[in-house]
Amino acid sequence: MRPRIALLLTLVALPAAAFAQGAPKPAKPAKPAETKPAGMMAPKPGAVAAVRPVYEMVKGWLVKSANQMPDSNYGFKPTPAVRSFGGIIGHVANANYMLCSTARGITNPMKATDYEKTMDKASLVKALEESFAYCDKAYEITDAASNGQVELFGMKGSKLWLLSFNAAHEDEHYGNLVTYFRLKGMTPPSSQGSGM
Predict the structure, then answer these.
(1) Neighbouring-strand partners of residue 156
(2) Strand partners, 149
(3) How does DSSP assign 92-152, residue by residue?
(4) With 0-12 CB in 10 A as exposed, 13-18 as middle and 19+ as buried, what is 158?
(5) What is the pTM of this model?
(6) Which of the four CATH numbers 1.20.120.450, 2.60.120.200, 3.60.21.10, 1.20.200.10 does domain 47-191 have?
C-alpha cells in the first residue's frame, strides 16, 4: 500500500512542480503614487522644514477664516465666558508676534499693541496677515539655530520646540473658530474641499 501512496503523491506533485516552474512570476504590485493634500507643502529635509507645513496649513485656514466671517459676526461668542470670533483672531495675531519674536531672538515689535481689543474686521484681518508675515521669518531659521534655547511662561526649550508650540497654538484656536462657523451655519475653510 505504501508504494501506491508514494506513486500517487509523485504523480500529483510532478505536474504541480512543472506548472510552477513554467508559470510567469506575478508582477510586483505598483507602488501607489505619493499624494499630498492640495495646498500642503511636502516637507524638505530638516527639523524646521518638517514643522513649517503644519504652520503653513493652519495659517491658510486662519487667514481664510478671518476673511470669510462677516463683519457682523466678529463680536459673536457662543457663551459669555469665551472670546469672541474677533477676539480669537486678535489673540492669534498677538501670540504670533510674541512667540515668533522669541524664536527669532528679537524684541516683540507689537508688545504694546493688544489686537484682542479690536473688533473691526478689516483691522483684524490686516493685523493677522501682518503677524503671519512676521512669523514666516521665524520658520526660515536654520536647523542649527533652531537648537538655540528659549524660555516661555517659565518653560525652557529649543527654538524648534517654540515653533512647534506656535503651530499647535494656532491650530488650537482654529479649532475654536470651526465651532463658531458651525454654530453660524457656515462651513469652515478646512471643510470646503479646497485642500487641507
Answers:
(1) 151
(2) 158
(3) HHHHHHHHHHHHHTS--TTTT--GGG---HHHHHHHHHHHHHHHHTGGGS-HHHHTSEEEE
(4) middle
(5) 0.75
(6) 1.20.120.450
Rounded Cα distance, 113 and 93, in Å: 10
Q: Are 172 and 178 in contact (CB under 8 A)?
A: no
Cβ proximity of 150 and 159 under 8 Å: yes
Sort 49 into a burial class: Cβ within 10 Å, 0-12 / 13-18 / 19+: middle
d(CA 134, CA 30): 44
First to last CA, the chain: 71
Condensed to tens digits (0 to 9), the pLDDT of residues 28-82 reads 544 444 444 444 444 446 889 999 999 999 999 999 999 999 999 999 999 999 9
pLDDT digit string, tens, across residues 117-130: 998 999 999 999 99
Domain locations along the chain: 47-191
Phi, psi for 62 (deg, rounded to 5): -70, -45
51 neighbors 167 (Cβ within 8 angstroms): yes
Can you tell me the distance from the alpha carbon of 166 to that of 94, in angstroms, rounded to the nearest whole number?
Answer: 12
